[in-house]
Amino acid sequence: MSGTKVDMDVEEKPKEAKAPKKNLKGDYSEEVKVKIPEFLAPVEKDASNISTALTNLLQLEKKTRLAADTPSTQKLAKAIIDVCVECKRWSLLNSHIAILCKRRAQLRKVISTVVQTGMAAIDQTPDKKTKTELIETLRTVSAGKLMVELERARLTKTLAEMKEADGKVAEACEILQEVQVETIGSMELKEKAEFLLDQIRLCLAKKDFVRASIVAKKVNTEKLSEAGFEGLKLKFYNLMIQYYEHERDFFQTCKCYHAILMTKTVGEDEKESVKALRMAVLYLVLSPYDSEVSDMIHRFNIMQKKLLLLPMAKNLVEMFTTSELIPWPLTNDPYETMSEFKKLGHSDDFKRSVVQHNIRVLSKYYSRIKSTRLAELLGLSEEKTEQFLSEMVQSKQLHAKIDRPAQIVTFARKKTANEVVDEWSSDVSKLLALVETTCHLINKEIMINKIKAKA
Questions:
Q1: Helix or strand (DSSP H, E) at 391
Q2: How far apart are CA 354 and CA 342, in angstroms?
Q3: Residue 6 pLDDT more than 80?
């Protein structure tokens, strides 16, 4: 019975009617249209009335914001910023930008309007201090907000430029590094590239070569090769030349000059083309030898039309693509090649490249050679010859063994059992092929003689 009573009590309890949801959306456009001029009229007569006008505008802004009337809230926010700018009340402007962006349930589009209107006022600031304060305020309110990430990136770049102009390169570099420009989807590709190049430039100016290398990897070099990006391409490769020269990476420096040489605008300018060709060939010759360097120098050897513009480069390419010894020191050199490397500060590196080329040439013609004879052919002492040989063997440019007691250098690598068998098999195959060809020719002659005998 007790259970039944409970059920009856539940059934008899009336259902509470749910309160209808209040529609927060409203349209204050007509009121805003009338009120904004009304609130600003006293300010036009006397600028001291600005506090009252701002209070009234903020009260009306609260109504429109809570009613989710975005267009009206945008107009009010713009009016607040504009009146502060017109009255030159910069401290009020900074405080009201912060107030508008931090208000409860502030609309996204309103924040965008506030930041964009504030950015438009930057050029009207009377001095550098005021300009810096306004930029810092705008950067603070836009931090972490995706809808204004593009504006914040531009503000950061402006601030970095100001710091750099004041000679604070390290500070400018740190400020610009705050922006991860590659994640900003609303930024155009060209602007992104310019931003990254500025980051690289400031890192190099600060001597932060590690970070410069990291940022450089974010640049899409394929896009830089497209039409309209030639100026940025040249700027990028010139910056990378500075980096690779510091790292003493001669081959990468050569590739940068080669990329500049292949640019359309440089190719059409004979003076710039010759300059890029000269530097590319000089750094290519200095590069430690490997298959990639060999490929590049043969590519230059094909570019005869361009090489004719610079006989010194043509001579260098010919020397290093021919399997002949380069006399050292260079004698009767009409192109003053050595002076070119002295200007770069790499005369010792050039000597190393010449000696290594000569050793590679000798290894093609000799399987074994006396160390005294090798030193004589290279024009070096035995000690220096051994030093260069050791470097080349260590860097795997060459296979060589030095027998000091016998004073013999062996270039031929000892063949493995498989290699010997393969070589023997190849020789037997060739021998059998020759025997078969000989038998065929003999049979042919026999047939011809039989036909002649019958005739």
A1: helix 382-394
A2: 15
A3: no
